[in-house]
Amino acid sequence: MFLFTNPQARTLLVDWQGDAQRALALFRASTGRYVGERWFTTLVHDLKHISPEFREWWPRHDILRVHTGKQELKHLIVGQLVMQATTLQVVDHPDVRLIIYTPLPEGDTANKLALLASLASTNKDILRV
Known about the structure:
The protein has 129 residues and is an alpha+beta fold. It has two domains: 1-65, no CATH class; 66-129, no CATH class. Helix content is 45%, strand content 23%. It is built from six helices and three strands; from the N terminus they run αααααβββα. Strands 1-2-3 form a three-stranded antiparallel sheet. A hairpin with a 2-residue loop joins strand 2 (79-90) and strand 3. The two termini are 19 Å apart. The mean pLDDT is 89.
């Protein structure tokens, strides 16, 4: 899980702790049927080893079925981005979910995303930031 294994996540997310806890609760809810399978046990073990927060929060057994609410990011180039998350689930395939992030007026997010898109079209390296 990116949030627990990549240090950049801590600088990108305004509320890293809250976002990481919600992501862990979503992860637990979506992987319940895999408990006891070797690959899943190994993954959880590895995440516990890599992240002290994962190790601390995993025993809480928090569960969250859908991701809703605001997502705030601190982008290195354009600054604060504020988006609303909407989760869509495919009825015939309950494991498949799509999360759509809609820019909110806060922080002039839509214009900042348009600026990033125009920068990305002229400079592919900008996507690495």
